Amino acid sequence: MRTVEKALKLLDFFTDKVTEIGLSDLARLSGIDKATVLRMLQDMAESGFVEQNPENKRWRLGAGILRLARLREAAQPVTRVLTPILERLAGETGETAHASLLSGRDLANIGVIEPARANRVYIEPGLALPLHATASGLAFTAFARPEQRDRVLGRKLSAITGTTPVTRDSLAAMLARTAERGFAVADQTYEAEVYGLAVPLFGPDGFACGALAVATPASRVSEPHERGILAALAPAAAEATRGLGGRVPAHHRITY
Amino acid sequence: MRTVEKALKLLDFFTDKVTEIGLSDLARLSGIDKATVLRMLQDMAESGFVEQNPENKRWRLGAGILRLARLREAAQPVTRVLTPILERLAGETGETAHASLLSGRDLANIGVIEPARANRVYIEPGLALPLHATASGLAFTAFARPEQRDRVLGRKLSAITGTTPVTRDSLAAMLARTAERGFAVADQTYEAEVYGLAVPLFGPDGFACGALAVATPASRVSEPHERGILAALAPAAAEATRGLGGRVPAHHRITY
DNA sequence: AAACGTCGGTGTAAATAATGAACCAACGAG
DNA sequence: CTCGTTGGTTCATTATTTACACCGACGTTT
After folding, report:
1. Rounded CA gap, A222 and A232, in Å?
2. Are strands A106-113 and A128-129 parallel, antiparallel or unpaired?
3. Which letter does DSSP use for residue B34 in this model?
4. Cα separation, A49 vs B66, whole angstroms
């Protein structure tokens, strides 16, 4: 396997909760030899992607990432555009709203706003959303470039919950339904008790580049609630697409 | 040379202005073979660090970077802590204020606020500041861990302007002066017409982890102005250090 | 339209850089 | 004191990276 890819995959073991990892742990988690992991970490430290805590020798994400993120935001202000939209969306629906963009093989969650109520869905910041098992992933894939869609259909699909689509046919059916309705539904396909509704975000080429989604506790789902969420989601997504410099294709209609 | 390091160095060619680069250009810029560059880009695209514009086939920084940045912010909210401090600092001094953290071999600029006046210093967002040629770099290095300081002194120092310190001795003298006074001065050592004042930011171990700085047009420099900037900079840096979970060492005093 | 230069991308054989088992010293727990 | 862990180093083996040559496509210039 390619070395660069392996090295960068090490970064995926850092999460919301696990912010520092020791050398041996990281070697175990990744299944790569300790010596190799160390060399890769040192290489990445040169560029500021990771840094070593001098106290306990453990490794964490580095400040160089913040620098590159600023650079990307300067090129295209994604976060700045999406944050107010997410805030309004969370306020209007009373549910957790989040946005994600394509990043490698899945969607990168790049913004979450939670509503001001006790019973709400918690979404890890910086989570990587699988394309086949989340409402965002379905909404994106259904409107993505054909080659992207085919790539997803060609993968072996991991079962994350009992209702996750695992066969090519079931996923294809879900995508067809999503394409038809203009939005995606994910009923506990990624996490139990969580129901997701998502709409694609479009790039300048008229193909999806990400998704805007609302997640609600499954217990709260009802037709009127769902209609209310979609009524807020649809214009929010259109605004987000415009804000990102994208173009909503003419054939995209949201029909409940 | 190590492959991972080379691949990540490709990202350094993206700047504020140059947000998209074609394959051949990147190969030329980096001096690496086209085929190699392509493979490295594809590997990094797998992880979302870069992405290819489907229209013109050129490459740009990817959304995966935003995801990782969110993750790091969740672990330690650097940007959130520093932004209001920078805003106040820029307001009080009437000059451009910026903050940076150690990232690999230099300081990563992770926040800039410009004042509301016409004649001001512009600092590229996401710039990498050399440790020997900027006020921030000097302030950091003078109070960094000894091994870090020695590493900087051991490098060959590039002359960026006519007044950039290029010999080990001149840099050592500047660092000694900085350590003594508690703040750093850089008189056009990085860019002509720009005068910088900087104070270190400290980590939990009492060593510098970054710097807080104010940049002013050289034409505006005067003793009272300088005193005024330092009077705002000193408490701002102390607050920033505390906000980042750091500890200002007892021996650090700012004496003009 | 023909010739040229560029572009992004591909395949190959050669050589370089990555690899991982064995080994250290240091630390903490029992 | 022993055991198990940690982070880190070394070095022969080997598998990965490398760069040359090549390809078709596109745009200019002649």
Report:
1. 16
2. antiparallel
3. H
4. 13
Which pLDDT belongs to residue A2? 87
Burial, A193: exposed, middle or buried (Cβ in 10 Å; 0-12, 13-18, 19+)? exposed
Q: Max CA-CA distance within chain A?
A: 57
Question: Which CATH fold would you assign to the domain A76-243?
Answer: Beta-Lactamase (3.30.450)
Classify domain A3-67 at the CATH topology level. Arc Repressor Mutant, subunit A (1.10.10)
Q: Is A40 on the interface with B (CB under 8 A)?
A: yes
Contact residues on chain B for A49, CB-CB shorter than 8 A: 8
- Residues in B closer than 8 angstroms to A128, CB to CB, are 67
State which H helix or E strand residue B187 sits in. Answer: strand B184-187
* String of DSSP letters for A89-148: HHHHHSSEEEEEEEETTEEEEEEEE--SSSS-----TTPEEPTTTSHHHHHHHHTS-HHH
* The amino acid at A95: E
Residues B65-86 as b/e (b if ≥16 CB within 10 A, e otherwise) read bbbbbbbbbbbeebbebbbebb
Quick: pLDDT tens for B157-176.
999 999 999 999 999 999 99
Shortest distance between the Cα of A225 and any Cα of chain B, in A, equals: 30
- Spatial separation of the C-alpha atoms in residues A99 and A240, rounded to whole Å: 10
What are the start and end residues of each CATH 1.10.10.10 domain in chain A? 3-67
pLDDT digits (tens, 9 = 90+) for B83-118: 999 999 999 999 999 999 999 999 999 999 999 999
Q: pLDDT tens, A102-151? A: 999 999 999 999 999 999 999 999 999 999 999 999 999 999 999 899 99
Residue A14 scores a pLDDT above 80: yes
CATH 3.30.450.40 location in chain A: 76-243
